[in-house]
Design the sequence.
């Protein structure tokens, strides 16, 4: 059982602008810490931006 102090600390972090996200157990095995989650999300965001960027016309 989570103590009141721990819940209050989590609440204060959430209110301070930190995003807390619960992930599924299978993803915890693939992404064991916040650094690995952030790397994966940045790669996904970069890929999405690249896919949405206007296509350049090639010279014939």
Sequence:
């Amino acid at each position: 059982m989570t103590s009141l102090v721990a819940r209050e600390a989590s609440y204060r972090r959430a209110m301070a602008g930190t995003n807390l996200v619960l992930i599924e157990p299978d993803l915890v095995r693939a992404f064991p810490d916040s650094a690995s989650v952030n790397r994966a999300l940045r790669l996904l965001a970069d890929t999405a931006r690249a896919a949405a960027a206007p296509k350049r016309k090639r010279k014939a």
